[in-house]
Design brief:
about 575 residues, mainly beta, Neuraminidase, Immunoglobulin-like, six-stranded mixed sheet, five-stranded antiparallel sheet, 40 strands, elongated, binds 2-acetamido-2-deoxy-beta-D-glucopyranose
């Protein structure tokens, strides 16, 4: 939410120029979601930056009371979508759905902002996505979007898994590895000389590459705890995925919290020797778990508070009772060994996300914080107040076209080293300005001069930034040959200058220039961010997968491996499963 105070300040700093408060023009038409061509998800395009086309966000509903912060989406989907990049969106009231940053890293996983060595950073995993797991490495970018670290798990070069990259308060990283290991599968009806996926988590010193801690599931967890069935796997080429680790975090005491999808279980692991301190849910639960909590195929188990009394997780389901996915806020009592439901969170469509997904307590230090739900393999996210009321319900693509492993709402300040971008449409009397990743730009001030190396540039108009790209109408403004703009922050401080344009080409021009005013009586109007939906087919709409039946039949038939590029619809017992 923008405070009125800042707006007033900005207006007064710019009072010398005609000033227009512009509304963003991003609009969305559900009919444009083309399911004839699964790659045809709606995207935003820009005149000033032709390289990028992030997904267009459709706001199903929005209310007041949204938390501060930007939305972080690691877009994955059809390779032809041209959208598979880490992407940050502005969801504030008057720039809702507009792009903040996108970067050229294909198919990111677990994209988010974290703190590393005291500085805000962006982090993600990049690599090859395999059948429900991955092989890759981990990236850390600073606030200028420059890589400052890039590493692999220790002993597993480029074999880091997709599911987790969390930086601890000790500046170590928690990452996962799936690796084939020989195992006797006879107790499950498999081969004596069969193969499983060993599920490893490591704590790694990012700077030195030193291994701080390592834990292997097979050392501590029996095959008989798994709900997964062997089916036709269990070979070296296709190991049996009996555990499916998908989140790990380190608690305030240094012990670890691990989520394993096909165990329906969250484990607390000792920092001392890796032994299991307790199991929450699953076949061998140490807790009395109330029925309302019953979860299945879950992801993203997190402590909310350092005292470990509240836990969040994403319950993919389906369970016997519930056929849709939900975020769960749990009260965990480690003395009485009980788990009860505090609240659950789900969107209006009651989307079912078969795999992936996340639930974030946006400000864990605040007991009344909002919650942010990412629907994993379905392109939906939502924000809720603490009581589960929907404050924001959004989607960024058609069902089964694009997705984001997790979704977060987080603070971020970006200070790109690039120059801001300009497109000057001389015939159309318009100029377009954007700056990928620059969060502080509040206004664009337009200047003109009759030489690129002019030492004096005349300011002619300005406009408040409307979103990613701001369009400024120059119709009634007397211009010299060249046009450029200066990006300023909310207190009028200079952030950067664009190159100069004569409407045909871009030219280098000094940023160290005299600024002057011709007292032009211009009346500029700024229109909104230029946004065009992809050309898509006519009528098909993308209904959110919802469920009116119970999950019982579904659960029995569901395959428990994860697949990411699922576009075929499998019909199981009358319920369409993505
Ligand atoms: C992204 O990077 C690849 C290779 O690193 C390059 O070929 C491609 O042009 C880049 N795309 C954009 C939009 O910059
Ligand atoms: C948010 O909700 C308000 C009130 O219903 C509506 O006027 C506005 O258009 C919505 N914003 C977006 C971006 O959909
Ligand atoms: C990011 O790193 C680059 C390269 O070291 C440096 O030039 C830049 O100043 C850094 N940005 C920030 C915000 O620290
Ligand atoms: C985990 O398993 C891997 C592969 O079998 C092995 O190299 C490693 O030593 C094991 N680590 C621990 C802590 O058991
Ligand atoms: C799995 O086997 C172990 C060792 O025999 C046993 O202690 C445990 O109870 C079994 N668990 C289940 C869920 O059957
Ligand atoms: C435009 O260029 C001419 C010379 O070509 C110069 O005399 C004049 O001062 C320039 N005007 C501005 C506004 O810079
Ligand atoms: C600014 O003033 C100079 C000098 O009078 C003139 O040449 C130029 O055309 C004016 N430019 C604008 C944008 O009004
Ligand atoms: C605006 O930028 C100037 C530097 O150009 C800086 O001194 C000032 O603190 C910034 N204001 C805000 C609100 O960030
Ligand atoms: C435009 O130039 C005049 C003259 O230098 C200056 O007083 C005014 O503050 C400038 N306006 C902006 C928005 O920079
Ligand atoms: C611009 O307008 C202001 C206020 O009307 C006036 O004081 C100033 O002299 C004018 N400057 C020029 C260059 O005409």
């Amino acid at each position: 939410m923008r405070s009125l105070g800042v707006v007033t300040l900005a207006v007064s700093a710019l009072s010398a120029l005609p000033f227009v408060l512009a509304q963003d023009s991003v609009s969305y038409d559900i009919e444009t979601y083309g399911t004839d061509d699964p790659s045809g998800t709606p995207f935003q395009t820009y005149q000033s930056n032709g390289d990028i086309k992030p997904p267009q966000i459709h706001i199903n509903s929005n209310q007041s009371g949204l938390a501060e912060g930007f939305v972080f989406i690691g877009v994955d989907g059809q390779p032809t979508s041209g959208q598979n990049f880490p992407t940050i969106f502005d969801m504030s009231e008057d720039r809702m759905g507009t792009l903040v940053w996108t970067g050229n890293y294909t198919e990111p996983f677990d994209f988010k902002a974290q703190t590393y060595k005291g500085q805000p950073v962006l982090t993600f995993m990049i690599g090859e996505l395999l059948n429900g797991y991955g092989h890759g490495s981990f990236y850390v970018l600073n606030q200028s979007y420059v890589e400052i670290a890039h590493f692999s798990p220790v002993g597993y070069e480029n074999l880091g898994d997709i599911h987790e990259f969390t930086i601890t308060s000790d500046d170590t990283a928690l990452v996962l590895v799936y690796t084939p290991k020989q195992a006797d599968l006879s107790e499950l009806g498999g081969a004596e000389d069969g193969w499983i996926f060993e599920n490893i988590f490591q704590e790694v010193n990012i700077e030195t590459g030193e291994l701080v801690f390592e834990w292997n599931a097979s050392t501590h967890v029996g095959l008989n705890e798994s709900y997964n069935s062997i089916q036709d796997v269990g070979t070296e080429a296709s190991p049996f995925d009996y555990f499916h680790i998908n989140s790990v975090e380190k608690d305030a005491n240094g012990d670890y919290l691990v989520s394993a999808r096909v165990m329906d279980c969250v484990y607390k692991i000792s920092k001392d020797d890796g032994h299991i301190i307790w199991r929450l849910h699953g076949k061998q639960s140490d807790f009395d778990v109330e029925d309302a909590v019953n979860f299945a195929f879950q992801h993203d188990a997190r402590w909310v508070d350092d005292d470990q009394t509240r836990m969040t997780l994403f319950d993919n389901g389906p369970t016997d009772e519930i056929g849709y996915s939900r975020g769960l806020l749990l009260a965990v009592d480690q003395d009485a060994m009980t788990v009860r439901l505090i609240n659950q969170f789900y969107n209006a469509a009651q989307t079912f996300a078969q795999f992936e997904g996340s639930l974030q307590a946006i400000d864990p230090s605040d007991e009344n914080t909002n919650y942010f739900l990412g629907y994993g393999n379905q392109p939906y996210f939502a924000e809720f107040d603490k009581d589960g009321n929907i404050l924001l319900d959004a989607q960024f693509g058609a069902t089964n076209t694009v997705n984001s492993y997790r979704a977060f709402k987080l603070p971020w300040q970006g200070k790109p080293l690039t120059k801001p971008d300009i497109h000057y449409d001389k015939d159309g009397n318009k100029a377009y300005f954007s700056w990928n990743g620059a969060t502080d730009v509040e206004n664009w001030i337009v200047f003109t001069a009759n030489a690129t190396d002019s030492t004096t540039w005349y300011n002619v108009t300005s406009a408040r930034r409307t979103g990613f790209e701001t369009t400024i109408d120059l119709t009634d403004i007397k211009l010299e040959t060249y046009v450029r703009a200066k990006a300023v922050n909310s207190t009028g401080g200079k952030l950067g200058w664009t190159k100069a344009s004569d409407g045909t080409s871009l030219y280098d021009a000094s940023d160290d220039v005299q600024e002057d005013s011709n007292n032009s009586t211009s009346t500029s109007t700024s229109t909104g961010t230029s946004t065009t939906a992809a050309p898509t087919s006519s009528s098909a709409t993308a209904a959110a997968p919802s469920s009116s039946t119970t999950g019982a039949a579904v659960r029995a038939a569901q395959r428990v491996i994860e697949q990411v590029y699922v576009v075929a619809v499998v019909v199981v017992g009358g319920l369409a499963l993505a």
